[in-house]
Amino acid sequence: MGKSRSARRGRAVVEAVVEQVDGGLAELIPDRDRARAWTLLIDGAPQSHVDLDDPAYLSFEYQRRLGHVIDLVAPPGKPVHAVHLGGGALTLARYVAATRPRSTQQVVERDAGLVQLVRRELPLDPGARIRVRSVDARAGLAKVPDGWAHLVIADVFSGARTPAHLTSTEFLDEVRRALVPGGVFAANLADGPPLAHLRGQIATAAHRFPELALIADPAVLRGRRFGNAILAASDHPLPVAELTRRAASDPHPGRVEHGRALTDFTGGALPVTDAAAVASPAPPPSVFT
């Protein structure tokens, strides 16, 4: 099956779970510091962290920033309809279920082998209203009824790259169709210098949504290193001040760009269409070492 790792929890040694899935070699690595927490890696790249005892705990920086968007999409605790494009270990679906009970969620994760592994080793709360479908993200989105979702989250990576067909104006047309008025689209974008992909994605979103905000590490925004940026978009004003406050108070503080500063950041990049779309750049090997 592959290599194995272990972590000591008290007197017990908990073994890693290593299994080949459709997208590569999946590893579930036990967290040394949290009794029932695990990190999911695919081909050595960290994908998700889940704490089964505390699903509201978000360890990864980018997931914490997506958590801020989730927290602010509706009044605290109010149930929402959410669509997750890309499932990983279902971290964010678990977070919504924990912080917004009675929410109804659809997760679209193409890798059926990964879904099976996660369901077996990191079981969902049976009371959570989470439906998981193993189809392509854009095909799954097309099945969402018009105006159903309060929130659509895109966090899709294949070989550590976002597939090209999830980067275009036509893809965002499908997102807008699925959203309620005032609903929010949030995307996990990864890029490094010279940030051509990130700038193009902002320009693409601006072509379809009047309100945008970007949360990222200042070093990433300055093009000094490869990293993640969270783009939030809506047809209604976003809670930029509160997003800014929350991002600034994170363990690794993030900066929020919006308005004219975000427009200037694109540097004249053009919207991306299906005809011209390419996958996001591959991260350098040093990112995961």
Keywords:
single chain; 289 residues; alpha/beta; Rossmann fold; 8-stranded mixed β-sheet; 4-stranded antiparallel β-sheet; 9 helices; 29% strand; globular
Describe the 3D structure.
- The protein is an alpha/beta fold and 289 residues long.
- The protein has one domain (55-281): Rossmann fold, CATH 3.40.50.
- The protein has nine helices and 14 strands.
- The protein has helices spanning 61-72, 91-99, 112-121, 137-142, 169-178, 196-206, 218-221, 240-248, 259-265; strands at 6-9, 12-15, 17-21, 24-30, 37-42, 45-51, 81-85, 104-108, 129-133, 149-154, 179-191, 211-216, 227-234, 255-258.
- The chain has an eight-stranded mixed β-sheet with strand order 9-8-7-10-11-13-12-14, with helices on both faces. Strands 3-4-5-6 form a four-stranded antiparallel β-sheet, covered by helices on one side.
- α1 (61-72) runs antiparallel to α8 (240-248).
- The mean pLDDT is 94.
Q: How far apart are the termini?
A: 23 Å
Biggest β-sheet: count, sense, barrel?
A: 8 strands, mixed
User: Portion of residues in helices?
Assistant: 25-40%
Text of the CATH class: Alpha Beta
Tell me the domain tally: 1
What general outline do the C-alpha atoms trace?
Answer: globular
What is the correct CATH architecture? 3-Layer(aba) Sandwich
Hey, roughly how much beta strand do the residues contain? Answer: 25-35%
Sheet with most strands: strand arrangement: 9-8-7-10-11-13-12-14
Number of strands: 14
Low-pLDDT stretches are: none
Structural class: alpha/beta
What is the CATH T-level topology?
Rossmann fold
The residue-averaged pLDDT reads: 94
Tally of alpha and pi helices = 9
**CATH homologous superfamily - what is it?**
Vaccinia Virus protein VP39
User: What is the C-alpha radius of gyration, as a whole number of Å?
Assistant: 18 Å
Q: N-to-C SSE series?
A: EEEEEEHEHEHEHEHEHEHEHEH
